[in-house]
Amino acid sequence: MPRIVVDVMPKPEILDPQGKAIVGALPRLGFTAFSQVRQGKRFELSVEGEVTEEVLAQARTAAETLLSNPVIEDVVNVQVVAD
């Protein structure tokens, strides 16, 4: 069954307290190579049948209107993932 993956991230100007907490914890756990973290959301939409351009367009529209808050988030990726 094919899936469409949608990734949503906070807009660059929006504070990301979860990302700040993660970046603060990384050095305490021995991970010292990372200077910033931004936490986003990932959605996986399963599709019955073939993923056509129309289905992909519907996924993009859903991502922009339902899966993300366009005031504070950007849809950064909508792609088909083969199983």
Q: Strands, helices and their partners?
A:
Elements: E1 3-10, H1 17-25, E2 41-46, H2 53-67, E3 73-81
Antiparallel strand pairs: 1-2, 1-3
Strand content: 25-35%
What is the overall shape?
A: elongated
Oligomer: single chain
At the first level of CATH, the class is Alpha Beta
Which CATH architecture is right? 2-Layer Sandwich
CATH-derived topology? Mth169, Chain: A
- Main β sheet profile: 3 strands, antiparallel
Helical/strand content category: alpha+beta
How many separate domains? 1
Helical content, roughly? 25-40%
Could you give the count of β-strands?
A: 3
CATH fourth-tier homologous superfamily: Phosphoribosylformylglycinamidine synthase subunit PurS
> Which blocks of ≥5 consecutive residues have pLDDT under 50?
none
- What is the string of SSEs from the N terminus onward? EHEHE
Number of helices: 2
Radius of gyration: 16 Å
Strands side by side in the biggest sheet:
2-1-3
- Mean of the pLDDT scores? 96
| Cα distance spanning the termini | 7 Å
Pfam families: PurS
Keywords: ATP-binding, Cytoplasm, Ligase, Nucleotide-binding, Purine biosynthesis
InterPro entries: PurS (IPR003850), PurS-like_sf (IPR036604)
Catalytic activity: N(2)-formyl-N(1)-(5-phospho-beta-D-ribosyl)glycinamide + L-glutamine + ATP + H2O = 2-formamido-N(1)-(5-O-phospho-beta-D-ribosyl)acetamidine + L-glutamate + ADP + phosphate + H(+)
